[in-house]
């Protein structure tokens, strides 16, 4: 094996991770208080209390996809989009990888805006009024916290995420326990059942699009540090339930809060709205908790974004990569906070549309692993030799088919798909369709090729 081939795999000495570490990485990344908004959104589909809880559970269980794709990283010691070269080829992998990078950087920018607003709210509690200078300082402080936390290696990352799990996970639980008694239980129990097809399924699709499918692009980036001898069951369950537990609990509280804070899901600044439902003595602790819940998500997004940049063969020094991403993390929030009034809404819609491409990619990647790589492994030439593996047309065709179908059944401010009507209007079902179509077509193409 030459130097070029070995460079895509972690050395055996660095692969000493345990499934317990994956639990803390994904638990900390899902303790954000904004999960409450997801719960309120679920109720907005006119569902009953029981249906809303089932939708929250089904949406949070979409992290099983991340858990399963993590096995590929455990098997090889390679990151997600490096492994993706097997299914798409080197050149065919460029577009999905670039979309993955955009997705990670985009949601990172959204979280930085939220973190900046939260930090401003915290300053206001101490009597410091918001102004442009304080806004810029809050943005720089929050960005600096993320950058400093992200430059450490895997061992330090595990310790940081473990710290956030215990400290801010506990604080988040305390906040939730204070919010629960404000529930209007008679109103909650009197909510009538919604339609399972036009209400329940679209609600689940929105949660899946923003959780399991969105995070699948980073699955192997952290499991690649696992010992290859770790059991598949342990890796799968630790990743899946590490994310499921906080997601389901926080979304369930959002379901309860929908009765006491009916405008929560539509609020431009839900962090501020939630603070108003808390007793005054809890405000400072709440804002600190909200910041602590945002930072782990940002750390994971930034680390995986830097990995994706390398996979695109954009090789720069670590310091240069940090500077590039730091500039993006600052410029987009500055434009959002000082220039545009509606940029963030359109930007989040754009990121949601990227989810269609990511869903089609995840399906193709998953079927490639199930049908071939799980048993045969990853040929080193597929991942490290661009001349040997320029394009896998079966994977590319499957991905494109899913993307096209997904867009045809999706409507947005940018365009309306011709079939985005009825059950498919104003929701993320196009994401699930993209996933299903790409998975089915790639399965058929691989099956036909194996028979041949």
From TrEMBL:
Transmembrane stretches in the record are 23-43, 49-71, 101-126, 132-151, 163-180, 200-220, 241-261, 281-302, 322-338, 350-370, 391-409, 429-448
Q: Record keywords: Membrane included?
A: yes
**One function term, GO molecular function aspect:** transmembrane transporter activity
According to Swiss-Prot or TrEMBL, what is its membrane topology?
Multi-pass membrane protein
Keywords, alphabetical:
Membrane, Transmembrane, Transmembrane helix, Transport
A Gene Ontology cellular-component term: plasma membrane
Q: Where in the cell is it found?
A: Membrane
Primary localization class, coarse: membrane
InterPro entries linked to this entry: Pur-cyt_permease, Pur-cyt_permease_Fcy2/21/22
Q: Which family does it belong to?
A: Belongs to the purine-cytosine permease (2.A.39) family.
Q: What is this protein called?
A: Allantoin permease
Originating organism? Paenibacillus thiaminolyticus (Bacillus thiaminolyticus)
């Amino acid at each position: 094996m030459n130097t070029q081939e070995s460079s895509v795999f972690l050395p055996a000495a660095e692969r000493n991770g345990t499934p317990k570490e994956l639990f803390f990485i994904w638990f900390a990344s899902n303790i954000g208080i904004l999960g409450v908004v997801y719960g309120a959104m679920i109720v907005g589909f006119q569902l009953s209390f029981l249906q809303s809880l089932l939708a929250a559970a089904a949406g949070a269980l979409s992290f099983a996809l991340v858990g399963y794709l993590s096995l590929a990283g455990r098997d090889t010691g390679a990151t997600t989009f490096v492994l993706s070269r097997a299914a798409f080829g080197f050149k065919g992998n460029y577009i999905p990888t670039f979309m993955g990078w955009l997705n990670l950087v985009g949601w990172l920018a959204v979280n930085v805006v939220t973190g900046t607003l939260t930090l401003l709210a915290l300053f206001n509690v101490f009597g410091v009024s918001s102004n442009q200078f304080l806004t810029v300082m809050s943005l720089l402080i929050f960005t600096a916290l993320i950058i400093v936390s992200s430059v450490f290696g895997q061992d330090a990352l595990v310790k940081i995420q473990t710290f956030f799990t215990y400290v801010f996970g506990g604080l988040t639980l305390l906040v939730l326990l204070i919010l629960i008694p404000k529930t209007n239980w008679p109103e909650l129990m009197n909510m009538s059942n919604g339609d399972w097809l036009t209400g329940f399924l679209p609600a689940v699709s929105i949660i899946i699009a923003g959780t399991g499918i969105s995070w699948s692009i980073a699955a192997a980036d952290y499991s690649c540090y696992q010992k290859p001898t770790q059991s598949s069951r342990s890796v799968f369950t630790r990743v899946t339930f590490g994310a499921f537990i906080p997601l389901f609990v926080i979304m369930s509280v959002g379901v309860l809060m929908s009765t006491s804070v009916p405008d929560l899901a539509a609020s431009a600044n839900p962090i501020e709205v939630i603070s108003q439902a808390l007793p005054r003595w809890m405000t400072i602790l709440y804002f600190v908790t909200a910041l602590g819940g945002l930072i782990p998500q940002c750390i994971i997004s930034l680390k995986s974004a830097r990995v994706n940049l390398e996979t695109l063969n954009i090789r720069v020094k670590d310091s240069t990569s940090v500077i590039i991403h730091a500039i993006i993390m600052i410029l987009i929030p500055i434009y959002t906070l000082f220039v545009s009034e509606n940029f963030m809404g359109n930007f989040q819609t754009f990121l949601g549309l990227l989810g269609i491409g990511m869903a089609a990619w995840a399906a193709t990647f998953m079927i490639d692993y199930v049908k071939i790589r799980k048993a045969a492994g990853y040929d080193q030439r597929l991942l490290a030799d661009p001349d040997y593996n320029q394009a896998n047309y079966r994977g590319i065709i499957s991905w494109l088919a899913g993307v096209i179908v997904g867009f045809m059944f999706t409507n947005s401010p940018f365009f309306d798909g011709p079939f985005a009507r009825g059950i498919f209007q104003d929701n993320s079902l196009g994401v699930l369709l993209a996933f299903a179509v790409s998975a089915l077509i790639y399965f058929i193409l691989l099956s036909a090729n194996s028979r041949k």
